[in-house]
Structures are given as C-alpha cells and as structure tokens.
C-alpha cells in the first residue's frame, strides 16, 4: 500500500510554486508558458519528462513503458489557465496560492494545476515506494486547453504512433459536487461565435448625431433578444437537429439522482431557476444544449453612439448535434433579422467540438468505480455529466481510437474560470490515496480494466 508521509503544508508549498506561474494561454508570453511546461517536465524526470514544441504553446511529454503485458494509458491534462477576470473581485492575488481554512485559492488550483499535481505525486510515490508504475503510462500535458486546443490536433496526428494507448485518463474534468464521489460519462460539445453589428465609420457624439443614425448597440440587443423564445428554447431553426428524444428510462435515472433544486438555487444566489420549458433543472444541465450570451463589447460609460457592437456567444452541445450545423442554424437566424441602418455579420471561432460520451459499463468506468470505492468506502459513485467541454476527448477518439476516462479530484463548485478559484486541500490526499487493489490517480489492471 502506498503511503504519503508529507503534510498538507508541504504539498501546498510545492503547488504554490506551480500556481505562481501565470500561464494564461490567451495572452501570456512564450517565456511564461515555457516556464510552466518546464516545471511539469521536471516533475516527470522519472519518465523522461520533456518539453516539445507545437505551432503554439509547447506540450509536456513523458513515457514509462516497463510493464510488459499491462495496458497502456495516456494521462492527459493542461498547464494553461484562464485569465483572472476583474482583480478587484479576488480576495487574494490570483497567482499567490493562499490557504483559507480548508481550501487553497488561486488561479489554476482546481483547473487544472491541482488535479495534474495529484497525478504527479501519485506517480512519484509509486516509483519511490514500489520502483514501478502499475501500468504502462504515457503523459501528455498541453498549454492551450483554455483557448480550445487549436494546435493539439496537428501535434496529435503527427505523433499518433508515439501516443497510442488503450485508454486516455484525463486529470481535467471535475467531479460534479463535493458531497459524493462521481465519474462523468459525457461532456458537452462547444461552438463559439461573435455577432457583430456595425454602423458609422467611427463612434459618434450622442448629442450631435443622436436620432439621425441607427445605434449598433441597440440593434445588437434586439438581435440577441431574438435568439430565444419566451419559454427558453433556442429560436434558430435547425438548432436541435439530430438530438434524440430524452427517453423515459433516462429521465427516471436523472430523477433518481439526489438533487435539491431549492438548495441549488440558493447556492447560486438567483431568485429562481430558468431554462428550456419541459425539462427539469438537472435534465437541462445534463441532457439539453444551450446558447448563452457571454458578453458584449461596445462603447462605454461615455456619451457616444458606438460604431461597432459585438456579442460573444457560446453554445454547449449534446450528442446528435453537429457543430457546423449549429453554426449554420444560428448564422441563418441572425442574418434573417432585418434591422435598418446597420450591417450584421456572424463570425464563428475555429475549433467546434462535438459532445463526448463513454458507456457507463465501459471497463474503464468499472475500474474507476472500484478505485473510488477504495478512497470513499461506503459511498456510491455517481455517474454524472460534465456540462462543460473538454476539446481533446473527441480528438483522442478520432486519432487514437481511445476513449477518455475523466478522473479528477477537483469539484465543479470550485469557481473554475471565475475569480477566487479554489480547491479543497483534502482532495489532494484523497486523490493520492490508494487501497490494496486500486491506484489513486488511475485504475490498476487488477480492478478489471483491460484494453
């Protein structure tokens, strides 16, 4: 049995150095991103950890292939993080990992530096105490997950033979909630786009020109208001194409999940829940697609008529939807709106991602359940759905022919992507814990996993 003799404070101190690297993939310098990659590679020295170039930010690779006859797993995660958002909303500096009671707060602590750190510590402990890993393990950590993994497809295809594996285990993909262990059997797809409305050549004085020209911001708000019907459905014809009807059996499974809607509402601080009519809150969260306005860029708190207004849109997709068809449906719907005095354009972002699923009876799921039952004795393991998106999952299935098992010890309530992101300190040790027959960060072959 593996033992972990270090104290929580020692783990936190080491993780602090990793979180201190502001590896924001959207705008960090190449030097900063390479610094984070080198930190990871150093932790993987036992498996020839190395930094390799891509057309964008580098990846970190490592390989330990000394277990003949055992399955081979590819452990995936990412070292990049989201921007901080409004610094005034942070209780403490975002890149200074801060212990606050039973949590540690800092950008990347939960997504995905903390969960990746758990993987590193388990692997190191196996090597120190047993001299080997329980499986053949390849490691791939990227630096562009938070911007849609734009350069991962080319890298993966170029190195497909080297990265071939029976299963991918993702350190990304948080458990659903802290009250019980869970595994995710699906994640939603994603497409993002901008709706751009333009008017005059430049911003105009709202007094000198007001009332004589159309205001692009007014027009954008009108277009955005037409994206949904009053009952919460997306109004674009064809948006729901390909989605199968939610079966009575699946609805019964979801209804059986212990879910307190009132507590959910109170925890979010909203006066009431809202969404597509005809579905429960949990059905909407797990089984239905969404279209959300994430922000508007235009003008400001000064007296102008902005010449340009842009709405930033994201759509989370479910099985059956095709990203390209969703974009087509939205584009046709938006351009059909007739608003005088402005020009309207729809600008899709690259890298649409389809939804991902893994069967609930897949051998990897069974092995992971056995592992979690060792860590959380007496607790049932919930099979949940990630309402967010992990772009690499569909790619791994397409290029490597391998399913991805989400196996992370962060939880979805830890303010991922928001100010004051945190991770529960206890989750470090829980993720590193190992029973006699199952590994903490990956299922052992003895739990029943086979390729």
From TrEMBL:
Pfam families cross-referenced by the UniProt entry: M20_dimer, Peptidase_M20
Gene3D superfamilies given in the database record: 3.30.70.360, Zn peptidases
Peptidase M20 dimerisation domain segment(s): 185-334
Top-level lineage group: Bacteria
Keyword terms of this UniProt record: Hydrolase, Metal-binding, Protease
Protein name, per record: M20/M25/M40 family metallo-hydrolase
Lineage of producing organism: Bacteria, Bacillati, Actinomycetota, Actinomycetes, Jatrophihabitantales
């Amino acid at each position: 049995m593996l033992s972990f003799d270090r104290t929580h404070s020692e783990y936190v101190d080491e993780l602090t150095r990793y979180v201190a690297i502001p590896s924001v993939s959207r705008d960090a310098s190449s030097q900063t991103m390479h610094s984070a990659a080198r930190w990871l590679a150093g932790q993987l020295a036992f498996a020839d950890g190395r930094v390799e170039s891509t057309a964008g930010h580098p990846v970190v690779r490592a390989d330990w292939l000394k277990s003949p006859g055992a399955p081979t797993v590819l452990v995936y995660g990412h070292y990049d993080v989201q921007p901080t958002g409004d610094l005034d909303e942070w209780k403490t500096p975002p890149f200074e990992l801060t212990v606050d009671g039973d949590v540690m707060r800092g950008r990347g602590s939960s997504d995905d530096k903390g969960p990746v750190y758990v993987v590193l510590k388990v692997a190191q402990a196996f090597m120190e105490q047993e001299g080997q890993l329980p499986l053949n393990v390849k490691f791939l950590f990227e630096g562009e997950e938070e911007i849609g993994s734009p350069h991962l497809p080319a890298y993966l295809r170029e190195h497909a033979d080297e990265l071939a594996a029976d299963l991918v285990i993702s350190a990304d993909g948080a458990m659903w909630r802290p009250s019980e262990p869970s595994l995710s059997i699906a994640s939603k797809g994603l497409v993002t786009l901008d709706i751009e409305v333009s008017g005059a050549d430049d911003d105009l004085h709202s007094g000198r020109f007001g009332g004589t020209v159309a205001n692009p911001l007014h027009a954008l708000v009108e277009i955005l208001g037409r994206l949904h019907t009053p009952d919460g459905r997306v109004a674009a014809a064809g948006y729901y194409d390909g989605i199968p009807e939610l079966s009575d059996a699946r609805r019964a499974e979801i209804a059986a999940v212990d879910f307190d809607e009132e507590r959910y509402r109170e925890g979010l601080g909203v006066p009431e829940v809202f969404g597509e009519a005809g579905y429960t809150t949990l059905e909407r969260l797990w089984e239905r697609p969404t279209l959300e306005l994430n922000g508007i860029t235009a003008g400001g708190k000064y007296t102008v008529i902005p010449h340009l207004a842009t709405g930033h849109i994201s759509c989370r997709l479910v099985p059956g939807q095709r990203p390209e068809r969703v974009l087509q449906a939205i584009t046709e719907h938006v351009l059909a709106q007739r608003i005088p005095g402005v020009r309207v354009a729809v600008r899709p972002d690259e890298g649409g991602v389809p939804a991902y699923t893994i069967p609930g009876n897949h051998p990897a799921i069974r092995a992971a359940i056995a592992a979690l039952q060792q860590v959380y004795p007496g607790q049932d393991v919930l099979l949940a759905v990630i309402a967010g998106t992990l772009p690499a999952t569909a790619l791994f299935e397409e290029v490597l022919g391998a399913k991805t098992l989400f196996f992370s010890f962060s939880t979805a309530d830890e303010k991922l992507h928001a100010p004051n992101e945190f991770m529960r300190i206890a989750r470090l040790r829980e993720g590193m814990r190992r029973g006699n027959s199952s590994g903490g960060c990956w299922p052992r072959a003895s739990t029943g996993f086979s390729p």
